[in-house]
Amino acid sequence: MAAPPALSAAWFPHEQRTTATAIGITVGAILGAGSFIIGPLIVTQKPDNQTEHHNMTSAWEDSSWLSQGNSTNFSTAKSQIMLLMYVEFAWTALIFLLILAYFPDKPPSPPTLSASKNRLAFRSGVKQLLRNGRFWLVCVSYGILFGTLSSFGGLLDVNLSPHNVTQVEAGWVGFYSQIAGGASGIVVGRFSDMLGGHFKLTILVMTVGYIGSLLWLVLMLYHSIIPFSTVSVYVSNLLMGVFALGSEPLFFELGVEATYPIAEGVTTCVLTWVNNLFGLLLLLVVMVMPGGGTSSTRTADWMGWATLGCGAAVLPLMLVFRERYGRLAVDTGKRT
């Protein structure tokens, strides 16, 4: 996730940079959509309804529960999950070996003026990054939106199961959402390149759309305020993907612009780390909640509202953010 902005800075002119970053980030989302299909195809064993709503940790510790014939189901599921992980490892290892075999560091000549200039040393860059308030507005906004969304989305089949939506059906919902989000990211990235900046306004508009889509889903799944339907599940998740993943490349590019001349790789690694941190925090809260566990309807409801609240928190953070495109100004000779 952290690599595309550094690659686009080294290889592409400024009028193509955001598009290149968007392709680098969203192609991962588009190809990652396959996991929603491959996962259910390999991991076919799923506990029955009684088992499904049993706390997984206590299940393994409760010998009487396992003696009721559920141990066979879990043993099969465990083997299938390990097979899935080995398949994913093999694919990742292959890509890694190809990169080792051939991956040029940079083109023969720098595509932009900023690409030819030295970046701050790692230690100096980190120190300056920690003191950059504008960067932390972008970083926290990105982290709370995408970190919580990734954790909430990762439990999509659990959240949909009370409505008799199968694991396979939930996989297709996630698949189409990822595909739509990836396509949206590329379109928004190209549009932003044509505008030559103005990332803040685009992020605000996309975030409002994301909040509306997630609110639709939460009110439908947990409160029946909006009637449940499979079509609504698909459409709301599709729109969430379009609005959320469509804005993701802009967060990376805005963070890099706010921290120039700090190396792009340093900035984007911190963005990615904070994203993972917020996703981890949401899952940790779920684990320690009274009556928690990801299969709890009460917990799923709380996760939905927490994810929605984190998305809403992005709006005030980005509203106080002051845009300044330091790297773009170097490349164009204009203050932006």
Automatic annotation (TrEMBL):
Pfam families: MFS_1 (PF07690). The keyword Transcription regulation does not apply. It is a multi-pass membrane protein. This is Disrupted in renal carcinoma protein 2 homolog isoform X2. GO terms for cellular component: membrane. Gene3D superfamilies: MFS general substrate transporter like domains. GO terms for molecular function: transmembrane transporter activity. Coiled coil: none annotated. The gene is LOC109477006. The chain crosses the membrane at residues 20-43, 83-103, 135-156, 199-219, 225-245, 266-290, 302-321. Keywords: Membrane, Transmembrane, Transmembrane helix. It is found in: Membrane.
